[in-house]
From TrEMBL:
Entry keyword annotation includes Transmembrane: yes
Pfam families reported in the protein's UniProt record: Sulf_transp
Name under which the protein is recorded: YeeE/YedE family protein
Positions of transmembrane segments: 82-106, 113-131, 151-169, 190-208, 220-242, 254-272, 292-312
Sorted UniProt keywords: Membrane, Transmembrane, Transmembrane helix
Record keyword Coiled coil present: no
Length: 314
């Protein structure tokens, strides 16, 4: 590849990653918050918005492939008992952490620096999962979308655009992405989905929890570039907090640091067993209609709901 093209593509990938981080912070995107919304008000706005992000990624990637982009499909894995065990640990870790891996980015972008302990705990979970659980190597599977008819991505994209127009019509005016204030869940996840689709096409299959897993496995290939994308997500989240006026650095408390590290550890174990954190499930596995991702995300949501119900004040 021409170095100039490669360099330009990487800069664009960094911008996509930063836009994704900004949207995560502005929309306070988090699976725990989405389940809590359903538990307390029976509204599914946030959960539906996360699924919608998957659809945007799916439509964007498939449409690009129809137009000649030759990128590889994200890897998929067979469903096994480890899928359920990992998803349960991922859900319990998110509840203990009080935020999933998306929510961790949003909280860091709001100045809650104790959440820097979460990725550290996640990394330690990835390092120790073999000694604690000794899971077998997951069996790879292909995405069923590999054989999808050529008209399918265009139809999906048209449907998603129609949904955006319908929401704009209901509001009597198109919703603007302002420089300040919170975004609606659907606005945030639409930006996340489109940004991640661009990132996937420019830099390949990538999530920031993948970087931690690769680091734990000693896979140093392109690690610096992948880590730079993770840093761009964090910078985008911090810019989102600063520009919206929600960047208010909090105090460090030892109990909070331990809680975040322990939550990250459980999520690291879960992500290694599935394999994949909930960012990878929502933005890679679910868009490719891989059964393991839907099973894992559904199990994670159920475990979070059960744990929140048990912990709810009486």
């Amino acid at each position: 590849m021409n170095p100039m093209i490669a360099g330009t593509a990487f800069v664009l990938a960094l911008l996509c990653a930063a836009a994704m981080g900004l949207a995560i912070q502005r929309g306070t995107t988090c699976t725990v918050a989405a389940v809590e919304e359903w538990r307390t008000s029976r509204r599914t706005t946030r959960l539906a918005a996360m699924v919608e992000a998957s659809l945007w990624v799916c439509a964007g990637v498939m449409l690009a492939r129809q137009l000649g982009h030759a990128g590889a499909w994200p890897a998929g894995y067979a469903v096994s008992r480890w899928t359920g065990i990992g998803a349960a640990l991922l859900g319990l870790g998110a509840v203990l952490n009080q935020a999933c891996v998306f929510g961790t980015v949003a909280r860091l972008g709001s100045g809650q620096w104790v959440y820097a302990a979460t990725p550290l705990g996640f990394y330690l979970g990835c390092v120790s999962v073999g000694a604690v659980f000794s899971p077998p190597r997951p069996l790879p599977v292909d995405s069923p979308l590999a054989g999808a008819p050529p008209w399918w991505p265009g139809l999906l994209m048209a449907g998603l655009l129609g949904l955006v127009l319908w929401r704009a019509w209901r509001a009597r005016a198109a919703q603007r992405i302002a420089l300040s204030g919170a975004w609606s869940p659907h606005t945030a996840t639409t930006v996340i989905g489109l940004s991640f689709a661009g990132l996937l096409l420019l830099a390949g299959a990538w999530t920031y929890t993948d970087v931690l897993q690769d680091l734990a496995r000693g896979m140093a290939a392109s690690l610096l570039a992948r880590a730079a994308l993770g840093l761009a997500v964090l910078v985008g989240a911090i810019v989102g907090g600063w520009s919206s006026g929600t960047l208010r650095p909090g105090r460090f408390r030892a109990s909070a640091l331990l809680r975040c590290a322990a939550g990250g550890l459980l999520m690291g174990w879960g992500g290694a067993l599935i394999p994949g954190g909930n960012d990878g499930l929502v933005l890679l596995g679910m868009p490719m209609l891989l059964p393991y991702a839907w099973v894992a995300f559904g199990t994670m949501v159920a475990v979070i709901a059960a744990a929140l119900q048990v912990l709810a004040p009486r």
